[in-house]
Structure formats: C-alpha cells, structure tokens
Amino acid sequence: MITASSGSRTVVVGVKMEEQESHTHCSELLTWSLVNVAQPGDLIVALHVLPNHETVNRDGKSSLFSLVKAFDSVLSGYEGFCNLKQVDLKLKICRGSSVRRILVREANEYRATHVIVGAPRGFSKIRPSISIGRYCAKKLSKDCWVFAVDNGKAVFKRDGLSSTNCADLKGSRVGLLGSIQWKFGKSSKVLNDDIQDSILLDSSCHKAVDQESYSGGDGENEKNSLAMVPVKVNDAGSSVKALYDREVANLKPGWPLLHSRISSSDRRVSERSSFPRISVVQWAMQLPSRNLSYDKDRFLGLDSKSGALVPVDAEIGTIASPERKSINIPKELVGLHEKYSSSCRLFKYQELVSATSNFLPENLIGKGGSSEVYRGCLPDGKEVAVKILKPSEDVLKEFVLEIEIITTLHHINIISLVGFCFEDDNLLLVYDFLSRGSLEHNLHGNKKNLHEFGWTERYKVALGVAKALEYLHNNGDKTVIHRDVKSSNVLLSEDFEPQLSDFGLAKWASSSSSYTTCTDVAGTFGYLAPEYFMYGKVNDKIDVYAFGVVLLELLSGRKPISGDYPKGQESLVMWASPILNSGKLSQLLDPSLADNYDHEKIERMVLAATLCIRRAPGARPQMSLISKVLKGDAVVMKWARIEINALKASELLDEEASPTSNLQSHLNLALLDVEDDTLSLWSVDQNVSLEDYLRGRWSRSSSFD
Ligand SMILES: Nc1ncnc2c1ncn2[C@@H]1O[C@H](COP(=O)(O)OP(=O)(O)OP(=O)(O)O)[C@@H](O)[C@H]1O
Q1: What is the ipTM of this complex?
Q2: 441 in contact with ligand 1, CB cutoff 6 A
Q3: Is 564 helix (H, G, I), strand (E, B) or coil?
Q4: Which of 9, 312, 477, 619 has a CB 3.0–4.6 Å from the CB of 301, allowing a cystine?
C-alpha cells in the first residue's frame, strides 16, 4: 500500500477522462483540488476507473494505452504547479464496474484524508457528483473529508474530523529547492515500494503500459490497479529529463529554474518529512555543513542537569556550565548576542514563558508557515509579540538573517525587534506588539472591524508601506530586498500606522537595480513577480511587484489568490488587470465600503498599483517614485498617467496578437500571472522614463495626454 509520508495527507481525486471533451472535466477537477485542498507535503492521487468492458477503443487501439497517453498530456501541465506547491501527484488507473465502490476501496487503501469527486460537464442527470459524494461520505471513515465538485464549485462537502482542513493558498510560502528534493525523495520511495504494479511513463508511452497487465478482473476485490504514473518525474533519466536539460539550456519561460533544480537533484533521495520531533538546535547540529567545534567559554554552555545548550550571558549573569568542554554548536549562533547586544536583548526562555503565561493558547495571535506568534507582556508592562520558529532546513539562517537585518533598520514603518532567545530547543524572536494585527487579518479576516478600516486608513497603510520599502531600497550603500512583501507581513498599530515585518527571507544587495539570481526562490503565492518566480532573478523590483498586489488588496478587499472566485478570477492580478485597463474603477473598489472616498487618493493608489504590477521589471518604477505617486506629486502623477496610457495601448496590441492559451498558460496566468514577456519588453521600449519625461525628450507624450 502506498501512503503519504507520516504527517502528510493523501487526497484522492476521482478523475474521468472524457475523450470528446478535450479532457476539461479531468483538468477542472484536478485544478480545483490543487487550488482548494492540496497543501505542501500532500500526496494527490488522481484515480481513474476504467470500466471492465472497455478494452479497445473505437479505432481498435488499447483503451488503456490511449488513456495513459491522454492523462500524460493533461497531467504534465501540472508539473510546475505541483513542484511549487510541494505536492506529489500520481495517476492511478483501476478497472471495475462500480466507480463509487472502487473510489471507496482506494480511499481506504490510501488512508485518504480527502476524497474529491466530480461530474462531467453538461451531465444532465441530477447532480451525479453529489450522489457519489454522499456515498463516499457514508462509506468512508468520519476522519475523511469528502467533496463533490460540479462546474468548479463544491456542491457537496462532508467535513472530516481530522483537523487538517483545506489549503489556504494565501499562506503557502513556496521554497523551490526544498520542494524538489522532497518530491524526488518521496517519488522514488513510492515507486520502489510499489514497483511490482507500477508502470513508469516513458516518453513514447509504449513501455508505460504493459498490455498484459490489464487483461482481466471482473470484481472490485481483484487487484486491478493498472498504472501508477508519477507525473514527469523519472528516476531512470528518461527523455523527460533530457527535455528538462534542453529547456534549462534555452532558458525559456515556463519552469526553467525548477527544471535546473530537477536535473541537478535527480539522484538525491531525501527523507524530508514534516517537522522533525527534535529540537531546533539538535536538528541544526545534525546538518554537516552547519557544525562548528567551539570552545563554549563565551556564549553557549551545556546545562549540566538537562544537557541542553544554553546561552551564557555575562550581563544577565546566567548559567556558566561547570563542564567546560568543547561542544558542537551551530556556527550561525556563535557570537550572536555579543554582536547585537547594543541593539536588542537576549531573553531567557523562562522570561518569555512568563510573559506569555506559558504560551497560553489564548495568547496565540497568529500562525505563519514556519512560526507561531504569541502575545506577551514583559514585567515592565511592555507588550510584545513572541515568535517561535519551527524547525526547518533554513531556520537558523532565517533567524540570524532576521536579527542581522532588522537591527540595522530604523524606520517608523518597519517593525522593531525587542530581542531574541536561543535556548534549549528554542529559537524565538521578540517584537513590539501591534494591536491591530496584520493587514491580512484586517482586510480578509474579521469583517466586523471593516467599518473602522475605511478608505482613509487604507490610504495611510499604502503610504506607510511604500515609505518602508523606499527606505529599504535606498538605505545607504546596502539595499535590502524584503522578498516576502504581503498583507500578512504588514502589521497595524492602534491608529493604523503600518509596519513591515518578517525579514527572514530578506537579502542584502549591493545596489537596488542590479540583479542577483537566487536558487532558493521563496515567497508567497500571489505576490511573486514573474521574473523571480521563473528565473530566480532578484532585485528591488520584486518588492515593487508584491507591493502592487498589496495595493490591489487594499483597493478591492480581495485576496491575492482565492478559489472562492469564478474561474479565471482566482488571481487578483489577473482579475484586476483588465479592470485597471478599462478604467472602470467602480468594479475594482471594495464593495463592502461606502463610496465616499477621496477620489484623488484612490486615483493615486490605482496609478501606483498599475505601475507596480507591470510584468517587465524594468517597467516598474522604483519605490521612491511610487511613494511620490501616492503622495500626489504633480509632476510624477502626470508622468504616471502617460506611462499607463502607453501601457494600455501596448496591451491592446498584445491581445490582438495572441488570443489563445493552453492549459499550462491558463494555470500560470490564473495562479501566478506568469506569461510570455514579449509584451512587457515591448512596453519597456515604448515607454518613457521619468528622467526623459522631465527633460522633455519624449516626443509622443501629447498623444497620450
Ligand atoms: N508584532 C506583532 N504584533 C501583532 N501581531 C503579530 C506580530 N507579529 C506577528 N503577528 C501576527 O502573527 C501572524 C503570523 O506572523 P508570521 O510572521 O509568523 O507569519 P506570516 O507572515 O503570516 O506567514 P509566513 O511566516 O509564512 O510568511 C501575523 O500575520 C500577525 O497576525
């Protein structure tokens, strides 16, 4: 039996391949499942039941043969998305007479946590998917979630008892390197375990399907699994891999960065599971490259009672271990306190335990992908937010980087670090507490606060975050690129003054405009700039793009990505772009707010958003210009209007030039706004820089005025 690794979940999706319907049913159901249910670490099993009587097609070919081929073409479109979302997608084909019974049997075999069924588009019977959904709900354990999806909407849902609910894409941070290693490790394991009845898909497909292997079986009890196909993952180095290598060489848009990671890691088998059950420090010490033999005279000591590593702090005068001997500590933590003692405090773990009333669940104010945040109160009455980092491969790097970067930043719109703690099993960061929580919460969370969070406050937030980013990008000779600008990383004070937080992914850059290429693309769905997502290219413009998405959230009240909206509107950028082009502002603005807004300020936010989300990084202005737009600088506003008119003209041309899209580009567009860059390059050429504009060197400006 194949199951997901411990701690992860298995989602069984009953897919039906409809020859005549260009596979739309299968794609829709899978897309729905991946967007709405899948979470990093999940195993998604696309299960197709082949009726017993179907052995040959009308054209006389083996039905299984054509079926696998058809599935391959559909599923290969999901490769990039699955890698990004860190899920493993498998196809399983079973033979049998009753689809529902086989679904239940397979779900039980996989110990599925979620089962998703659908119905072919245009099916005229009364919602057959609901009836299958009900059947599965009745037959499957109460732990299992069951969904019936019809036309892109869940028409039936049975909540499972397990606490693991549906995915919330907004919070899914992505880390490509990690996902690929995991995927290979996991895929290899699954294949080895199941090698007897699995068939690897070869590019020709002829080897993929053993024609003998599906010759019989007339009951559901029979072992009638026919094919288990890992999507585009092939340990044996088949032509699929060759394709990756070719594509890397050409660096075409698509998934080149993913491909390069895949080709360089195809022999790795990593056993990445969920979070390890050992301490962060212990865990980090196991990593070979991070260890350092260190005489602990100075900062860390071994607690003779617990055997744990504890900080030795001369100022606070805590533990000095009697057993002074050489021990291994992660090199990242060496000298940390000494280096930052002037700018922030080293807390003892006990102090933070007391401050948060032993991390009382009621004090939990937020959860991130890699952390939990508790509200706390220090003995002097100061309120703090205590962030506990969960173990992960990069946790030490992120911990130290956050301290390193944040202690150099001093701005009213950037969060202050009060102190930190590394002790025993724990890595903690202590910040000023911001009473209104995150912008994300204010926009998309508790709707009853909405009347307080009106247009004035939203404008204030937009301007404050712009100033924070301007400061980061122009702070002396070292630019800081945040890399994870998003509404959950903007915190609000009582009077809605925003502060940018979470510098765990931030990067130093020598200058704001020069590019560096990252192999560890990380960030959050919905906010990733296309050039960063596709090529790992990083400069300040990736923050500008993400800020544009935050502006759109402020204007529309919509989430950057959500499966709640109709097909094609899941991505905020994709939904908003045509509206921004059409200038029909009423369609863009948050319907839950009254329309007594300050027109000028809204226009500034709209202009700024339009400029920020331009696909070509070179066409996105620097944050200093965006701040000026938001402040309403007359000259810059005029220039911005000209820019945007030029953009509209270029987009109209582009629409005429390339009206079609395939599944891959549809997914890219819908979820990540990744598209061929030709339009953007065109628009860069056509547009005028502010400098040129000010020098009056742009002769065509009058035609757009
Ligand atoms: N200083 C703070 N004051 C008040 N609330 C905070 C503070 N810091 C964090 N929070 C709350 O905790 C939540 C989680 O924060 P955290 O930075 O751990 O994760 P995130 O940014 O939401 O996600 P990820 O870490 O995956 O990017 C925030 O969204 C916010 O609601």
Answers
A1: 0.92
A2: yes
A3: coil
A4: 312
